[in-house]
Please model this.
Amino acid sequence: MAGGKETPRQKMIGMMYLVLTALLALNVSKQVLDAFVAIEENMQKAAINHLERGDGAKRALKGELVVAEKDKEDPTKVKAQKIKYFMDVMEKIDIETGKFIELVDGIKKDILSKSGEDISVGDKDPNKILWVDYNKKDPVRPARMNLAAVQAKDQYDVPMHELVGEEPMEPKADGAGMKLWKAYNDYRLSIVKLVGTYTVGGKTWSINPVAINKFKDFNDLTKQVEAMIDKSQCNKNDDKGKLRDLYIELTKPETVMAGGDGEEQKEWPWIGKTFDHAPLVAAIASLTSMEVEVLAARASAFEHIKSRVSTGEFSFNSIEGFAVGPTMVTKGDEAELKVMMAAFDTDNQPVITGGGNWVVANGQGTMKIQTSGLGDKTMSGTVKIRKKSGDWAEKPWKYTVKVIEPTGNISLPDMNVLYRNYENRVQAVASGFDKTDIKIDGSATKRSKGSNEWIVTPTGGSTCTISVVGTNSITKKSASLNKVTYKVKPLPKPNAYLGSVNNGSVNKRAEDIMVKYGPEITLNVSFSLLNWTLIANGREVTGTGNTLNAEAKKLMSNTAAGKKVALEVSYRGPDKVVAKATTINTIK
Model:
């Protein structure tokens, strides 16, 4: 088996194989062989139970077809056509199932007959082995056998010869065992493909599974199977879990590690190890176990297919009103509200993943989220609930909330000024909207500088009007929220500095020349220094650059303390206007 996480049925069969292995080293007693007879009887009953479970899903779908064909509310019979489509899929699965059941029953009768057993039919006759023979008119129903009537229960030569050959480490290619191995694996591929490939509502899903029989453990097998499914074009939302489970339940390892009685552990072909020196009744029981697995997969597949056109797979015992609306609404906008009735089972709560810690009650999960940053916050995960069959129905969920920064607004109307030909920083927030923009009326340009900030540069005129425009990205509606008219003025004139002094006491060794605003003006403006003139002791020295030249420095050093020196500079501002600035300082 696959090992690791197994179903109860797989565990039961695995225990049977373990017991079988132990028998190979023992002188098999009558009591042990009778135990295999009992195991076989129970597995035949399990096979019939799974057969009836699958047939029940099939009959229920036929019943729904009768109702759908009479439905006057559906004149085009859309649901009836859908049911017929999936009933045809069920018939194709039954064809494949019937082929496998016929093969296995044929192998059983062959090894019984070659072992000298009487396989004539005798219904309920305690002296007869074959009570009900395989019938092609009911192709998925296995033959009913009574192994208590087998005479050579411990005979193993025929089963081993027919199924394996003389060398269990290399089963014969044309033997019944290798035919069985191929048929079992082919059935797995067929049923997964039939369940996962279909067209409904104009949408086509498909899967072409490949053989996976080499894996380290159950987790490795699951990983390989899920990777194969993820690469396919199947309906992953609705079918991935079922396709994975079907594939895994019908998967046996190509080889198994086995040894014993001091022998070294080595790899055996699954077929070789299963039927190597297997007593006749044990071999029959092993074959029946494979029929049980196939019929269980058929029933599970039918119930899943039925759920595509019927809600009968889910149980509900309570209802609740449920309203859904937009996560953000702005005054004046229309809000679309959807109200529905939610049905749920108080004894079967959903399982929710993704996001954080969920509190699940009344069919829904609740979680508190912390918002940080601005813009869209998106979370996602899955929600799943168990169906009546025990399988899980799983759906993805996704939720997006708009995070908007809370804002307030204070204004100084008398200070509404924009400076001409200067890059004025403008910040604006449209409260109640997740997207903000500005609109300009007047001779000015704008460019975005980031979140809710722009650079506005007036180029002319005496006024400029800026409007704040908010947009709801969900409803796509916009609104003009505020309009402010600004005076447009030229930039203030800067000061000239000798050293760091403007109209003050200056050291005679000062040499740096600057044109800038004083601390009373907070504008961040750069001015280009074109040329300068230094006047002291009745002399003038001119130059360019941001420092005094040698002649001007000498003039400064020869000027006595208490004497005045004047510095006149020519500069160009960001408005491209050339102007002059002067500073008159006293030598200290």
Remarks:
- The first strand starts at residue 130 and ends at 132.
- The chain has ten helices and 27 strands.
- The first helix runs from residue 8 to 23.
- Residues 439 and 467 are 5 Å apart (CA to CA).
